[in-house]
From TrEMBL:
Compartments, record wording: Cytoplasm
Name assigned to this protein: Oxygen sensor histidine kinase NreB
Database matches in SMART domains: HATPase_c
Keyword match DNA-binding: no
EC category: transferase
Domain Histidine kinase: 325-418
Transmembrane keyword on record: yes
Highest classification ranks of the organism: Bacteria, Bacillati, Actinomycetota, Actinomycetes, Micromonosporales
Co-factor requirement: [4Fe-4S] cluster
Transmembrane segments: 20-39, 45-67, 79-100, 120-140, 147-167
Organism: Micromonospora profundi
Gene Ontology annotations for the cellular component aspect, listed alphabetically: cytoplasm; membrane
InterPro entries reported in the protein's UniProt record: HATPase_C_sf, HATPase_dom, His_kinase_dom, Sensor_HK_TwoCompSys, Sig_transdc_His_kin-like_C, Sig_transdc_His_kin_sub3_dim/P, Sig_transdc_His_kinase_ChrS
Keywords for the protein's UniProt record, in alphabetical order: 4Fe-4S, Cytoplasm, Iron, Iron-sulfur, Kinase, Membrane, Metal-binding, Transferase, Transmembrane, Transmembrane helix, Two-component regulatory system
Catalytic activity from the UniProt record: ATP + protein L-histidine = ADP + protein N-phospho-L-histidine
Amino acid sequence: MTSSDGPDRLTNWREREARVFRVLPYGGLVLGTLLALVVPTPKGLGAGPTLAVAVATGCWIAWFVTLHPGWQSRLKLMAVYYAGLLAFAAVLVAASPWYGFFAWVGYIHAFPVLPKRWRIAGVTTTAALVATSQGGGLAIALSHWPLWLVLVLFNLGAAGSVSWFAMVGEQEDAKRQRLMAELGEANRQLTDTVRENAGLHAQLLTQAREAGVLDERQRMAREIHDTLAQGLTGIITQLEAAEQTRDRSADWRRHVDNALALARESLTEARRSVRAVRPESLETARLPDALVELGERWSALHGVRAEVSVTGQAHALHPEVEVTLLRTAQESLANVARHAGASRVGLTLSYMGDVVTLDIRDDGVGFTVVEPLAARQPAGGYGLTVMRQRVTQVGGELAVESEPGGGTAVSASVPALAGSAG
């Protein structure tokens, strides 16, 4: 059975019930009239008056039931109809007991047209009329009233049983209608929810796409700063130094070679950044070794001693964490070279259980730290902002301590997320 069988069966049952309600009275009326005319009873009204009452009865039913089916929902009007129906039935039964075939229509019409408290009266009256017809007519019923009373009680018992089942069926029908209405409302709400969820899903996709675009822009901005900007700054610094030492061929050549090396390294790192590949130094060595190599290259390039130390048990970290710490060290050293005028720099990588900390200290000129840190930095650069974004993105914290003439200390603390040992 499909989900639509229940409503379809209920609709078909109501259509059949409506046809019985409208058609059956005419069948009983025609049958009773034919029998009354073919087999007339003594002391009846006669064929003419009986036929006239039968026609009037048919017109009464046609007017209220056939021609105006919508009136069935108007209880007061239907009460008038039912009273007239019983009155016509009483006259016809008195005229001929054969109209008992019509009188029992009162059982059928009592339930659709009468309120519940009036149905008992309608059924009782109908039972009396049917008992009268079964007893042979009004005259015989009056003369043999004990028999008539037995027939009335029998009809009441039979009608009561049928009525009880009809009332139970009506209650079940009302319950089904209520359940169908609730189910329809639930389906409507579900449809609205699905439609709303579809809209939210589309909105989330749009927001996720926009967020992805923004994240990619920020990533590219950081990578460009960490590769191209730093490389170009170093190249410019070396070329300016070469310009100042053009009379000393050895120093001039050294600065030019440094500029060429920086250009090649920057180009390589820029290509790796576009492909979202880790820095080459982390591809070939562990983070502590990469920091040592970075310190040595930076010292050789700028002539400032950079010491790198490692504390705790070194172990492989998540690639993004290692990239963050390496880029932080690169940016800090670049800031020292551009702004600090330091004579010494120290880098300390500390493995402390669940946290890894990188500290970069210099003895340069320092500066006044303004919060928020991203709002201002020496020479209006972008480096501290990039460092903070990187560190925050991996769930870490960045702290900067400095004062004019007192040097600068940068500390990046990040979660020690484990990575592959390879």
